[in-house]
Amino acid sequence: PAPCMNPRFWILATALVSGFSVVYNASAVKGADPVAFATLKNAIAAVAVLAIILALGSWQSFAKLKRGQWMKLLAIAVVGGSIPFALFFTGLSFASSGGTASFTYRILFFFAAGFAAVFLKEKINARFVAGVVLLLIANALMLGPISFGVGEALVLAATLMWAAEGVLSKQALADIAPDVVASVRLGAGSIILFGGLMLTGRMAGFSGGSIFGAPALISAAFITLYVLTWYRGLARLPLSEATALLSLGGLVSLTAPALMNGRLPGISEGASGLLLLAGILLVLGPVRLRQMADETARTLQAQAAGRKA
Predict the structure, then answer these.
(1) H/E/C letters for each residue in the chain?
(2) Average pLDDT for residues 85-113, to the nearest whole number?
(3) pLDDT tens digits for 149-170?
(4) CA torsion, points 145, 148, 151, 153, in degrees to nearest 10?
(5) How many whole angstroms separate alpha carbon 126 and alpha carbon 193?
(6) Highest mean pLDDT range out of 114-118, 136-140, 285-289?
(7) 267-308 and 7-28 are packed helices; what angle lies between their axes, rounded to 10 degrees?
(8) Quick check: 283 and 128 in contact, CB under 8 A?
């Protein structure tokens, strides 16, 4: 089997996408209404996911959904696809410390693991806890000046909602296809965001030409790839493990700007990266690491045999 068939490879792909998207969105959203930008890119991504579903001929999945499943999907759209986006981007605009805001979001895995233990009854062993501690330390090393005000509080609220969404999504994925969850999360979520802009009289945010064109399309491509890989992995992994793996996106966000500017990461960045990797190794454990290594080796051998043939 191909490596991507292992759910952990899907989440690692999500982390890669997440890391680059954070760097890109930080510049793409400048000069635009952040909530309007989020609404537009999510709407474009929803159309893209729906197009993929139609192309794969799996649109019948929507017709088979029962009332209870629709309620779960709408809850995901509210808790994960709309309100937290408004809170997060508004919080970033008010945050006095970008480092604190970024740190708050990057420890999503910490809150998600707690919710998973309480609501999903996922078992958290000592090795996992040790890995989480290392991940927290790694993220703390990325932290700049510390402050906590209204902006940081809004980012924290958004992060908690996304962690809660993980629980709802994990439950929904038990009997709903990942692409269906992704499309409703984005589609219904963007409709809710649009309604919020109308009610608050912020429709002028769409009049700024800076949010249209390449920035919105590229950002939409990032979130499309994010949801397509994330829900495929989450469907087959514990929430606590999936969100811990997702934290590797911080390593990408940390090193990408330095490399793009033609310099190597500094000492604190390097130390943070090493701690992130060490934390992930502890979270996965030797058995899962061996499974991933064996699966990758089999795939490479099959590819080599195919080339010889």
Answers:
(1) CCHHHCHHHHHHHHHHHHHHHHHHHHHHCCCCCHHHHHHHHHHHHHHHHHHHHHHCCCCHHHHCCCHHHHHHHHHHHHHCCCHHHHHHHHHHHHCCCHHHHHHHHHCHHHHHHHHHHHHCCCCCCHHHHHHHHHHHHHHHHCCCCCCCCHHHHHHHHHHHHHHHHHHHHHHHCCCCCHHHHHHHHHHHHHHHHHHHHHHCCCHHHHHCHHHCCHHHHHHHHHHHHHHHHHHHHHCCCCHHHHHHHHCCHHHHHHHHHHHHCCCCCCHHHHHHHHHHHHHHHHHHHHHHHHHHHHHHHHHHHHHHHHHHC
(2) 79
(3) 888 888 899 999 999 999 999 9
(4) 140
(5) 41
(6) 114-118
(7) 130
(8) yes
pTM: 0.87
Is residue 79 within 8 Å of 189, Cβ to Cβ?
no
Is a pLDDT exceeding 80 seen at residue 128?
yes
Tell me how crowded residue 182 is: count the other CB atoms within 10 A of its CB: 29
Give the pLDDT band (50/70/90) at residue 21: confident
Looking at the chain, the whole-number percentage of residues with pLDDT higher than 90 is 41
